Amino acid sequence: MSLDHIRNFSIIAHIDHGKSTLADRLIQRAGLIDERKFHNQILDNMDIERERGITIKSQTVCLKHTGRDGKPYLLNLIDTPGHVDFAYEVSRALASCEGVLLLVDAAQGVEAQTLANLYAAMEHDLEIIPVINKIDLPSADIEATREQIEIELGLDSDGAILCSAKEGTGIDELLDAIVTRIPPPKGDPVAPLTALIFDAHYDSFRGAVMSVRVFDGTVKPGDILRMMSNGAVHKVEEVGVFLLHRDKRNELMAGEVGYIIAGIKTVGETRIGDTITLDDRPASTPLPGFKEIKPVVFSSIYPIDADDYGSLLDSLERYKLNDAALIYQKDTSAALGQGFRCGFLGLLHLEVFQERLEREFFQSIIMTFPSVQYEFTLKSGEQHTIDNPTYYPDPSMIDEAREPFIKATIMIPERYMGAVMKLCMERRGENSRFNYPAPGRIEVIFDMPLAEVVYDFYDKLKSVTQGYGSFDYELIGYRPGPLVKVDILVNGDKVDALSIIVHEERARTKALQICERLEEEIPRHQFKIAIQGAIGGKIIARTTVQPFRKDVLAKCYGGDITRKRKLLEKQARGKKKMKMIGAVMIPQSAFVAVLRTDEE
Amino acid sequence: MNAGLYVHVPFCIAKCPYCDFTSVPNLDLIPTWLDAILSEIDRAPGMFQRIETVYVGGGTPSALPRSALLSLFAHIQARFHTSSATEITLEANPEHISAANLHFWESLGINRISLGIQALNSRDLRFLGRRHTPADAIAACRLTRAVSHMTLSVDLMFGLPGQSPSAWLRTLAHAVSLQPDHLSCYQLDPVPGTALMKQIQTGKVHEVPEIRQKRLFRATSRFLEQKGYGHYEISNFSRNPESECRHNRNYWNHTPYLGVGPSAHSFDGRTRWWNIKAIGMYAKRLREGRPAEDGRETLHDTQLRLEELALGLRTKQGVAIESVRWFDPDLERTGKLIEAGWVREQRGWLRATLDGFCLADRLPVDIIGNSLDDPTGKDEVTACR
Questions:
Q1: B3-21, pLDDT tens digit by residue?
Q2: Cα dihedral B299, B304, B305, B306 in deg (nearest 10)
Q3: Which residue of A545, A550, A557 is the best one to mutate when testing the B interface, meaning the one whose CB has the most B CBs within 10 A?
Q4: CATH architecture observed for domain A6-181
Q5: What is the CATH number of domain A374-481?
Q6: Interface pTM (ipTM) of the complex?
Q7: What CA–CA distance (Å, rounded) separates B84 from B104?
């Protein structure tokens, strides 16, 4: 059977450039959902995705389309996550396509992620169709955007499609372009099976549902699969394609995109980027590009109420079913009791995790300061890799400490150059390089410690560039540096959950920042509370929570007793959510405040 | 039922920098306010028939023209049952005290005067933005004593920036020498939105450190107790039980009260409601024959008990132990407070010690512990359209 009627494509764009809206519009045009049921951003079906306007889990959908030539086509739209944390997932999705729609916002122009995505698409040798979106906006500047596409992206802007996904204009032209410009997939349906897993999600009845692109061969129910990364075998129960729901088929063939269900219990047992072959007739080599996903950001979580530990564990297990990238193991804090050390792909991943845990699993948790993975060479020659400040080695034993560095690519209008330079220098950026891809625009490249970026760098960048700055990063390896452990002491008691590993240069600033946050959040007690930041025995920062205000201050005058009572009720409720550290009650809000981004 | 009546007079000659009460320095609005408050009095709910106390506060009620006071009291007498035993208090500023005014006020039935002297040296008075001199204050006390039979209470403030403990004690001693029946000593309490708070925020004024505030408070209590004034509530001292302010005491023991005037609060034993603050809007509602209520809440049992606890621990009388047990059945948490020396249990009542008074707003929270767990969501506040 010919593969000429199939097109596999993806949409890539900078965050907010309208990817999900365009996807929705294509789905609607393909008649998969009728106008009345249509609600915005069908593919972003998690609340958090819709609220933040980003796609976290990619989804795939098969669109039926009749071309200008009157022939029926199957257009497989492979949606990709739109955030730097998920670069690997994006690369696997792209590997499953023959072409991409490169979406550029007509009002915003080309951004750092647009470029990063373009490079990724070029690596896979994909046909690239530039699409200028949001042409309905009053601030849209189509000509300038065309120019950017020519100069910054090096693409032929004559081929750019103009559209407004919101208004639905230009969609027909776009569908035509997909059919005529993106090549059909190639592949040999009778060769040994090679199918790429580019995503997996969890179904409570069927277990892991793997999204795959079949490159060669054919797969059907009853086949015995073999995962090429680890040799695990599973029996295929069902194959099919994604409409908006799963649509069962007899087989999936070379060139097709669809799903495989094979009695695999959790998505943790599937690996994105892995190659599936058949056990009785295996392919000789896997598809290229498989990587073990490794978390880069770590944080510990503790239930606010120790009694909830069991239920938190249960929630983590359920959460993990659908998030292969999350890793966790038991962890114990002297201050906060039993909890879990969790690893994430990046800060967004961490935030999404935290929000979903609270919203969908109703867990109230305390989360510790995110940490990266540090390497230590001890004087004995021993090597240690540490992602938890608790295990920071005895300083006198350390020969060399190393931390992960990234190459940060930031694209900004020229006028923000000063502010961005300052921000990057403050975050210990080094080895800066600049490119001038277009008049008025600068691409700033810095080598930066990952630890300085994982936390609030992206928010800060957004703020100093008034939202015009865009950011992308890749890990470039470990570099040595003087890394110290800062402990936080409340009333003389070390709160282990607040310890951080930090570059010596930044230790005082960070310690003071944490102490100040705690000072604001810890309520007054009957005694004065010292909050100290210390490296070993040396105090480097200090704040104080003064003892109770004499509450005679709050005079009770006149008949407005309601106000007074409400205050008491509020205080009494607030007290419930506190952790005792020594003799001091620390509210959950204090742990949260430590993580909060600076407002200034 | 012997209820209280509170009349709010929202006018001052000038606004003091520390004050966050509802008051405006615009006496032109007096006729508008008067019409409104008279109609509010006329339509007072029937349950407030008999009243045991009347308190005319503000603002500066003594700044009202005699004609206004006259109509006000005429309406009060007409609408409510009062007797010679009714405690009727007027708040007054020293600059308004004259023999003629004192006679006039007494003729209206006023038998208690609360004199806002606040301080007795020029520097403090200037800081507080008061319009009288120390001499005015002293003369006002002496004149009140000389020409009237009214119970005299004086208001003082402590914890002013730069005020040393000895300067405060001199002020206190001076005030005591004027032989008031009652003293209210309030700590300067910077409230958000006031001119004073702005001065503090911009660093022009420095707050007195808390440790010194506490010393001043304890010194006040010791000094006045020694001079024969009973410390019967955190801020209040009385020469004998008869001269304690019955009106205020009733607020603290949940006796019903009716408040009339902008921002005034009322309470019927279960429900509390409050008036609109803005004078214009308040008057408009009453002109249109509608209530001036801005919101209300009905207290459920736990909330009533919580108020009893919080208010009781601010008084010498204390709180009945059954109200404590409502939150702390086996007195486990309370026991710790007793151990710490902040409260004492005596014959079925729990009372705060002087050290406990210093933590008066904290003690109830400690006693409550986690016992508010059963959600008190019934605590609705409904705004009047």
A1: 999 999 999 998 888 888 8
A2: 80
A3: A550
A4: 3-Layer(aba) Sandwich (3.40)
A5: 3.30.70.240
A6: 0.83
A7: 16
